[in-house]
Specification:
cytoplasm, butyrate kinase activity, five-stranded mixed sheet, binds adenosine-5'-triphosphate, 2 domains, binds butanoic acid, alpha/beta, 20% strand, Nucleotidyltransferase, domain 5, Probable butyrate kinase, ATP binding
Length: 357
């Protein structure tokens, strides 16, 4: 009989930690632990939160009668490590060091590998991360920015993009590694990736001012005007960074990062809201068009996923602009916990070898 595996998965976000325990592909419980600004403001750095978050996870496992010893592995969401190719990675010392210092910056997901490792150590079981946001499968040609001092980087919702792309391929009885897809993750940040035969060969950097604007990020900007604003004396460096990430996009025009609220504004006749929301769809469609060029027009499907993909009117605007390229498929929301479990299971079952960071 086939062996069964029990996996704890941990997905730390900026204001929450989502956890679940899976018996093979079946979630036996799932919980979102919310952290108030007050709780988190005690900590200077993201890394300093790890013990606080780990202790709550252990408490919840205990409350749900999950014996730590019953777990076969712990899988955390991977963070801003050095660029790596997609897959499941064993947490090792070098990774822990880079997650701790935030080698490419601070991000709540840096805690995923750290907490997974801490819990795994208690029971002498392996800890893994899967498809972190730094998955980098870009081709050399895509790295050239046009200014030698600046190289383009891949920062992408790889976990959800790859999980949805695999799920879609399976539904079409194809291997992800045999087809070409364009995947647009429409969340708080937006990344649009060109997937060629299982690799994301180009994508906009979703954290740092590339691609479409998003609910709270500016996306790409006219650079001359941006330089002028930086030197206008009106804003500090931190304030400028905040205008690009955090207070950019929908927030800067409409004072909300909630696409549902924008939908309500439009229903109430707010013309500015309509124009701005429409512009976000327009920029996403343009980015999909760029990916189609990267894939030389050989596109087996366009996938829209993430929270905003629930908005049928919004996805219709995009579809109208890009359906000439390929069929559009909608996978609303994200299933990152399941994606983490699937990544762990592929290794435990010997279908994939864990990679070394
Ligand atoms: N039913 C819905 N209809 C329209 N928009 C929605 C719906 N549900 C969520 N959203 C929007 O989706 C956005 C958040 O998406 P999501 O939850 O994927 O992002 P996140 O996990 O916070 O960030 P990220 O995906 O960048 O990691 C918000 O703007 C939210 O308003
Ligand atoms: C791709 C970066 C993840 C995020 O939106 O924070």
């Amino acid at each position: 009989m086939e062996e069964k595996y029990r996996i704890l998965v941990i997905n730390p976000g900026s204001t929450s930690t989502k956890i679940a325990v899976f018996d093979d592909e079946k979630a036996i419980f799932e919980e979102t632990l919310r952290h108030s600004t007050e709780e988190l403001s005690k900590y200077d750095k993201v890394y300093d939160q790890y013990k606080f978050r780990k202790d709550i996870i252990l408490e919840i496992l205990n409350k749900n009668n999950i014996e730590l010893e019953s777990l076969n592995a712990i899988v955390g969401r991977g963070g801003l490590l050095n660029p790596i190719e997609g897959g499941t990675y064993k947490v090792n010392e070098k990774m822990l060091k880079d997650l701790k210092i935030g080698v490419q910056g601070e991000h709540a997901s840096n805690l995923g590998g750290i907490i997974a490792n801490e819990i795994a150590k208690m029971i002498d079981k392996p800890a893994y991360i899967v498809d972190p946001v730094v998955v980098d499968e870009m081709e050399d040609i895509a790295r050239i920015s046009g200014m030698p001092e600046i190289e383009r980087r891949s920062i992408v919702h790889a976990l959800n993009q790859k999980a949805v792309a695999r799920r879609h391929s399976k539904s079409k009885n194809k291997n992800y590694e045999d087809i070409n897809l364009i995947v647009a993750h429409l969340g708080g940040g937006i990344s649009v990736g060109a997937h060629r035969k299982g690799k994301i060969i180009d994508v906009n950097n979703a954290l740092d001012g590339e691609g479409p604007f998003s609910p709270e990020r500016s996306g790409g900007l006219p650079v001359g005007d941006l330089v002028k604003l930086c030197y206008s004396g009106k804003y500090s460096e931190d304030e400028m960074k905040k205008k690009i990430k955090g207070n950019g996009g929908l927030v800067s025009y409409l004072n909300t990062n909630d696409a549902r609220e924008v939908g309500e504004m439009i229903k109430e006749g707010n013309k500015e809201a309509e124009l701005v929301y429409n512009a976000m769809a327009y920029q996403i469609a343009k980015e999909i068009g760029s990916c189609a060029a990267v894939l030389k027009g050989e596109v087996d499907g366009i996938i829209l996923t993430g929270g905003i993909a629930y908005d049928k009117e919004f996805t219709k605007w995009i579809e109208e602009m890009v359906k000439f390229i390929s069929n559009v498929y909608i996978y609303p929301g994200e299933d990152e916990l399941m994606a983490l479990a699937e990544g762990g299971l592929r290794v435990l079952r010997g279908e994939e070898k864990a990679k070394e960071y």
